[in-house]
Amino acid sequence: MSGHGYETGRLNLPFVGISTFGKRPYIEDWSQINADIAILGAPFDFGTQWRSGARFGPRAVREASTLFSFGHAGAYDHEDDATYLPGSVRMVDMGDADIVHTDTMASHANIEAGVRAALAAGALPVIIGGDHSVNIPCINAFDDQGDIHILQIDAHLDFVDERHGVRFGHGNPMRRAAEKQYVTGLTQVGIRNVSSTAKEGYDDARTMGSDILSVRQARALGPRGVAKRIPRGARVYITIDIDGFCPSIAPGTGTPSHGGFLYYDVLEILQEVAKHHDVVGIDLVEVAPDYDPTGSTAILAAQVLLNLLGFVFHARGFR
Question: d(Cα 64, Cα 256) in Å, to the nearest integer?
Fold first, then answer.
């Protein structure tokens, strides 16, 4: 190495190397996870009702995440005067749950096994979908973790009970979650326009403990106002559908809905929640990269996840 003799190792620029999430270590043996954060890909999209393609979400979000991974630990934010995700935060990439084509139940079971492995290791599970049905096995895996509250960022309510026998598609996850004894409530934010859920679904959701906010209602409340609607002391599972964002900044999704959030709308809500609640699980779903040749949807997804993880572990005292 010429010039700077004091530097050792590799420069490891974002475009160099294999695209694990954040360029963190890949752990193939799920019994050997020793980390604070475990990333799991769930490349399943058989639950979609219109455009498929979210099976390529985990791969795209991982590649996009390398943009923010320059081979040095931590990311300094001058606005907050904080270094997020310092080297003391151990993050690993578990790779993907195995998907069995056309078999929803087998695929979901494999996703659930991955989430359970992360939880058993004491790591925060972070699941990259896939369509929103992958949330169903994620929430199933929390059956021995105590009570949780779900924060959903989404354009759609996803509260369909059953339609033509379908109970585990991407229109069903919040209904399946609300049925769990250990899910104490849902805060559903960004819900707007013509929804895939009929009026009865909204009535059912509110009866079963949902607090439903549109984009305009959330903006009127402000980030702190939205976060304060989550019960004090609740342990929060966050599920982010990329179509909660406006398709002007996130076109790479199967069911785009105009009028969505912009970046800081969501980021500031997440930062408030991370400050005041214990975040116990995260999924980010419905990135379908082939509908966005610019790659900006996947970059948005990676940026949201990395910042959210930074907020969570900053709040936990990692500096």
Answer: 20
